Amino acid sequence: MSIIDTHTHIHIDAFDNDRDAVVEHARAQGVERILTLGTDLASSKKALSLTEAYDGVYSAAGIHPCDAHEAKPGDVDAIRDLAAENVRILAIGEIGLDFYWETRHFEAQYQVLREMLAVAKALDLPVVIHTRNAQRELQWFFQEENITDLKGVMHCFEGDRDDARFYLDMGLHISFTANITYKNSPAVRAVSYVPVDRIIAETDSPYIAPAGERNKRNEPANVRLVVEKMAELRQVSVDEMIALTTVNAERLFRFPPISPNKIP
Ligand SMILES: [Zn+2]
Ligand SMILES: [Zn+2]
Predict the structure, then answer these.
(1) Global pTM?
(2) CATH code for the domain of 112
(3) Which of 23, 68, 78, 137 can pair with 108 through a Cys bridge, CB separation 3.0 to 4.6 Å?
């Protein structure tokens, strides 16, 4: 079965020199489908353009919390229109709260998140939520806004088991990157806690390279390493872990099936 990298930014400059090779390398590792996520309006458009250039590449449109304060009036509406008009945009993201990289502009982060969640709901698309150093604040936000169920995924999950429980109770999926290969990552303990039908894998390329390569550019081929680590932590076979994460990602994002002649 093929693997899906559900979270990348392969449309950004870091891949301009060798994008074809990066996609080929992923395919050689069995990574047949890749989601690339926008972080603002321009980036969401660029991500979408990649879906036309490569089979198996799909995109998401969103405004990242670190870019929230730079969003212009009309950007949220433009992203809504983009997502409404393009079937290869499978999700709204990334969106969320980040109080690690962005220690100002809190109000802009909350406001953009609120508006993007409304867009996702109106379009019936799943959301991809980024949260860094903001678990308590995000949970507080959901409670204040009376958001008790949500279709989507907590990406690059960095919380503990209690945080995972909170999001699982809302109906969210939990996605892990190669952060689970790092020593002392609290996410490691959450890996075996997430139910079989809610666990998802990603790389967040070009970021979050696996342990031992942390200064290198990450790429979608490495999602295989993430799934292998998950299998080890959950004590299941790699094939089983691939099957679980692929089926979960297909269902959440409604990935179109791979055309039969593409199955290796
Ligand atoms: Zn993120
Ligand atoms: Zn990301």
Answers:
(1) 0.96
(2) 3.20.20.140
(3) 68
Per the structure, the complete domain to which residue 251 belongs is given by 3-262
261 C-alpha to ligand 1 centroid (Å): 33
Q: What are the tens digits of pLDDT across the range 24-65? A: 999 999 999 999 999 999 999 999 999 999 999 999 999 999
- Which residues touch 90 (CB under 8 Å, ≥6 apart)? 35, 58, 59, 60, 125, 126, 253, 254, 255
**pLDDT tens per residue across span 235-255:** 999 999 999 999 999 999 999
Q: Ligand 1 centre from 76 Cα, in Å?
A: 18
How far is the centre of ligand 1, averaged over its atoms, from the C-alpha of 130 (Å)?
4
Q: What is the dihedral of CA 125, 126, 131, 134, to 10 degrees?
A: 80
**Among the listed residues 59, 53, 66, the one whose alpha carbon sits nearest the alpha carbon of residue 7:** 59
Sheet strand arrangement including 152-154: 3-8, 31-37, 57-61, 89-98, 127-132, 152-154, 173-176, 199-201
C-alpha angle 11-13-14 in degrees, rounded to nearest 5:
95
Burial class of residue 259, CB neighbours in 10 A (0-12, 13-18, 19+): exposed
Give the Cα separation of 101 and 132 in Å (integer). Answer: 8
Q: Which amino acid is at 43?
A: S
Tell me how many domains the chain contains. Answer: 1
Torsion 176-198-100-186 (CA) sign = negative
Residues of the chain with pLDDT under 70: 259-264
Contact at 8 Å (CB) between 63 and 25?
Answer: no
